[in-house]
């Protein structure tokens, strides 16, 4: 039996969103070291602010904007003994829900504390502002313990604020990232090992006799295990495709380029791959292609036209 493989994988992409007037005011305020909330129709102050009352669903605009204090009280907490990449602090810290003075809701952030014994519900804290601020939640670097014995912020009423600033923040870009370990299992491990020998293999269902590439270890139609290995390709047919106009971070290819579903000869399931060796606007359904490996690649780098006549639609219509 081939070795079952494992590999660390990362899925990462930038998430871009525009801000409405309420969220714009909140984030721009953080840039200016001002914490803003909004007051609802029944007098509650919400921090972070929202655009609709979570109780009544009534719209909230900047007319209800108020400034609250940068001090507050911990309502609950959890200790993070092993910070991960991208978290607010590189040393162990507490995740805390803080009710800022003047607010009726809590804000989630990090608390810089020497250890879990130093954290308790009800403790007083204050904002530690980041040295460089751009209009993001990270403008609050973290919270820190605060001995506010003579502090009157807890009794101070929130002050009305216009919510207007110069050069307001109108959008944010956040990196979405998922780190995980992938184990392809027996069937796909055999597939990957075969690719190392520049062969493509699938597995045949003993019931319906369809050949699945990459193999899954079981037939998704019949629900039975598969084990008979079948070599397919390396030529195939483009069944459908898309033109990519957004440059990938880790792919050194100029846009636009084409990714396609390719039905390898002998396979009953199309896999996807990049099409090269042809202008992007000449790729078409039915185009006959073959795998291309580079000198140091374990997997096909791309697929290129074979020069054969296009495949008839009826030969691949079930594989779209």
Keywords:
320 residues; mainly beta; OB fold (Dihydrolipoamide Acetyltransferase, E2P); 2 domains; five-stranded antiparallel β-sheet; 2 helices; elongated
For the largest beta-sheet, the strand count, sense and barrel status come to: 5 strands, antiparallel
CATH architecture of the largest domain: Beta Barrel
**Proportion in β-strands:** 35-45%
What's the average pLDDT?
92
The helix count comes to: 2
Structural class: mainly beta
Give the SSE string. EHEEEEEEEEEEHEEEEEEEE
Could you tell me the radius of gyration in angstroms? Answer: 29 Å
State the helical fraction: under 10%
- Please indicate the count of domains: 2
Q: Can you tell me the CATH topology of the largest domain? A: OB fold (Dihydrolipoamide Acetyltransferase, E2P)
CATH class type of the largest domain: Mainly Beta
Low-confidence stretches: none
Between the first and last Cα atoms, what is the distance in angstroms?
33 Å
For the largest sheet, list the strands in their spatial order: 7-6-5-8-9
**Strand segment count:** 19
Q: Characterize the overall form.
A: elongated
Give a quick precis of the structure.
The chain is mainly β and 320 residues long.
Layout of strands and helices, then pairs:
Blueprint: E1 7-18, H1 21-31, E2 35-39, E3 45-46, E4 65-68, E5 71-80, E6 93-100, E7 107-111, E8 124-129, E9 140-145, E10 159-160, E11 171-182, H2 185-196, E12 200-204, E13 211-212, E14 228-232, E15 235-244, E16 257-264, E17 271-275, E18 288-292, E19 302-305
Antiparallel strand pairs: 1-11, 2-3, 2-4, 4-10, 5-6, 5-8, 6-7, 8-9, 12-13, 12-14, 15-16, 15-18, 16-17, 18-19
């Amino acid at each position: 039996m081939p070795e079952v493989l494992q590999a660390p994988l990362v899925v990462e992409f930038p998430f871009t969103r525009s801000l409405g007037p309420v969220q714009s005011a909140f984030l721009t305020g953080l840039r200016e070291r001002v914490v803003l909330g909004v007051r609802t129709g029944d007098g509650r102050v919400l921090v972070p602010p929202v655009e609709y009352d979570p109780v009544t669903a009534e719209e909230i605009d900047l007319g209800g904007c108020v400034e609250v204090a940068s001090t507050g009280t911990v309502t609950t907490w959890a200790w993070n003994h092993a910070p991960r990449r991208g978290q607010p602090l590189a040393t162990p810290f507490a995740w805390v829900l803080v009710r800022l003075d003047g607010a009726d809701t809590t804000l989630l952030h990090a608390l810089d504390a020497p250890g879990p014994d130093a954290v308790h519900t009800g403790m007083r804290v204050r904002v530690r502002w980041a040295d460089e601020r751009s209009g993001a939640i990270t403008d609050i670097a973290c919270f820190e313990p605060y001995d506010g014995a003579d502090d009157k912020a807890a009794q101070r009423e929130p002050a009305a604020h216009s919510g207007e600033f110069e050069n307001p923040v109108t959008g944010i870009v956040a990196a979405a990232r998922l780190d995980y370990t992938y184990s392809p299992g027996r069937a796909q491990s055999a597939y990957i090992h075969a690719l190392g020998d520049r062969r493509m293999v699938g597995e045949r269902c003993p019931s319906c006799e369809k050949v699945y590439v990459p193999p899954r270890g079981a037939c998704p139609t019949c629900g039975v295990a598969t084990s008979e290995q079948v070599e397919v390709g390396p030529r195939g047919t483009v069944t459908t495709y898309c033109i990519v106009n957004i440059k990938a971070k880790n792919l050194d290819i100029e846009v636009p380029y084409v990714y396609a579903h390719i039905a390898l000869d002998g396979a009953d399931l199309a896999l996807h791959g990049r099409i090269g060796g042809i202008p992007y606007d000449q790729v078409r359904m039915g185009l006959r292609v073959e795998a291309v490996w580079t000198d140091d690649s374990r997997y096909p780098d791309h697929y290129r036209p074979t020069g054969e006549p296009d495949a008839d639609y009826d030969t691949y219509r079930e594989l779209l």
